[in-house]
Amino acid sequence: MGTYLNPGNQGFQTIRNDIYVDKTGLIDYINSTIDTPRKLTCFSRPRRFGKSFAAKMLCAYYDKSCDSRALFSGLEIAEKTSPKKI
Questions:
Q1: 80: Cβ–Cβ under 8 A, 6 or more apart, which residues?
Q2: Whole-number Å distance between alpha carbons of 71 and 82
Q3: Which residues of 38-64 are buried (b: 16+ CB within 10 A; e: fewer)?
Q4: Averaged pLDDT for residues 25-30
Q5: Mean pLDDT (the chain, rounded)
Q6: What angle do CA 23, 71, 53 make, to 5 degrees?
Q7: Tens digit of pLDDT for each residue in 40-65?
Q8: CB 77 within 8 A of CB 23
Q9: Using the 8-state DSSP alphabet, how is residue 22 labeled?
Q10: For the purposes of burial, counting CB atoms within 10 Å of the CB of 72, is it exposed (0-12), middle (13-18) or buried (19 or more)?
Q11: pLDDT at 86
Q12: Counting C-beta atoms within 10 Å of the first and last residue's C-beta, which end of the chain has fewer, N or C?
């Protein structure tokens, strides 16, 4: 198991506000690739198009050190599943 550089959900907590655009469909896609031959996923985006925000969202969702259910309530992924703990 790897070591996390930024544990916790503080990064996503700071960007989750009333004007946050829901990109949690990405989590559903990542969940579908876990334990498959397609487990390596590349998300290429142009400069300034939210790569860091997506990374913070994924860290908050998969982090074991905190409970992020409240952060994801009301978002697309909350309708499909609860935060996974790998």
A1: 28
A2: 11
A3: eeeeeeeeeeeeeeebbebbbbbbbbe
A4: 92
A5: 83
A6: 40
A7: 888 888 888 888 888 889 989 988 88
A8: no
A9: -
A10: buried
A11: 44
A12: N
